Amino acid sequence: MSEQDDPEMEELLEQDLLDFSGLLSEEERRTRDRVRAFVDERVRPGIAEWYEAGRFPVELAPELGRLGVLGMHLDEPGCPGRSAVEYGLAALELEAGDSGLRTFVSVQGSLAMSAIAKHGSAEQKSRWLPEMAAGRLIGCFGLTEPDAGSDPGSMTTVARRDGSDWVLNGRKRWIGLASIADVAVVWARTDEGVRGFLVPTSSPGFAARPIEPKLSMRASIQCDVDLVDVRLPADALLPGARGLSGPFACLNEARYGIVWGVLGAARDSYRAALGWSLTRRQFDRPLAGFQLTQQKLATMAVAVEKGQLLALHLGRLKDAGRLRPHQISIGKLDNTRAALAVCREARTVLGGNGVTLEHSPLRHANNLESVRTYEGTDEVHTLVIGQQVTGLPAFR
Questions:
Q1: Which Pfam families does the UniProt entry name for this protein (predicted)?
Q2: The model scores a pTM over 0.85
């Protein structure tokens, strides 16, 4: 009998220990349930195969557009204009399927589309955002470089004027979606400081190569990008972005989504462990009947529930226009660490079977090793919080 055919089992798996759902509005619950149903129908049946093959299911892009999760929280032409909390709930449900799926939505919406929405001209917004929100065009965000990860201020990519044009030269690394993108938001040094450019990926001199092989985020795409004398017209410049505050504003959008997303991986892993422990029998009793197993399950459940409350609090602050960068760092740092611990512990409940792709916890744990690093490492977010606590910057 499957878990879906066992009402008692389903009730145990779906328990809401702290009545988190009771803190949500009816519209927020509808958004959550709609995205969860999509993941159950379109992601779970294929994710193990995609992960093993190292393939991102790009065919889902227009479906995600119709689902309304691309640029979900942007109030711009063609964008859904939903709340920050709704976007967070969607990120959680997407990552319960796989971090690669949530990463696609994050790169597309919180990075590439957010850059255009925050810093673009009216013409740039109308040209790109509606098609990107529909999933018909894909974007990427080129900030990180081979020698400039946590320190984007040391980037070496440059853009120089040549008449009315701009010419870009440089390299970027770990650029999500670059090999399938239609447009790249590229950040480069200029005589006016760091500026952002919209680079059609069909431009001569633009080349993207997927980084392979990977042990993490296998159902996702990250690339090396080369920019060799890429010539752009004057209107490729994002007029509203000057200095590193431009890309950082977009990074904070992505980091906020991660605060929620990682809890999806944690919840899915916890439920996998709980379901297994209730049906797997050893020494003539279910694994769930042993004290050490219950300790593991209780610890995992508390971590997921606590993380949801933190994410919701930050979401309410964001919707009220009061969310600050150090608060995002608290959420990204703590929820990612907690989620990774949950996934690893869930794997132990599954025993040796947990190292196969039949079960999700180790896949989630592997993915979270990447999530823990991108959009700011543990160390970077620790120092952001430390600066807020002490008033003293300690990055250099």
A1: Acyl-CoA_dh_1, Acyl-CoA_dh_M, Acyl-CoA_dh_N
A2: yes
Distance CA 211, CA 198 (A): 23
Structure tokens belonging to residue 114: 């957010």
Longest dimension (CA), the chain: 80
Angle CA 327–302–289, to nearest 5 = 165
Q: What is the pLDDT of residues 317-350, one digit of tens each?
A: 999 999 999 999 999 999 999 999 999 999 999 9
CA nearest neighbour of 253 among 332, 150, 154, 148: 332
Contact status, residue 112 vs residue 196, Cβ threshold 8 Å? no
The pLDDT value recorded for residue 245 is: 95
Reported CATH class of domain 3-133? mainly alpha
Euclidean distance between CA atoms 13 and 63, whole angstroms: 28
CATH 1.20.140.10 fits 245-390, yes or no: yes
Active-site residue numbers? Answer: 375
The distance in angstroms from the start CA to the end CA of the chain is 58
pLDDT tens per residue across span 347-392: 999 999 999 999 999 999 999 999 999 999 999 999 999 999 999 9
Alpha carbons 177 and 223: distance in angstroms, whole number: 7
Distance of alpha carbon 263 from alpha carbon 185, whole angstroms? 28
pLDDT digits (tens, 9 = 90+) for 275-298: 999 999 999 999 999 999 999 999
Packed helices 245-279 and 325-349: angle between N→C axes, nearest 10 degrees: 20
Alpha-carbon distances, residue 1 vs 95, 275, 279 (angstroms) = 27, 12, 10
The domain limits of the chain are: 3-133, 139-236, 245-390
pLDDT in tens, 66-81: 999 999 999 999 999 9
Q: Residue 22 corresponds to which tokens in the numbers above?
A: 């009771």
Cis ω before 146 (30° cut-off from 0): no
Instruction: Give CA angle at 103 (98, 105), nearest 5°.
Output: 105
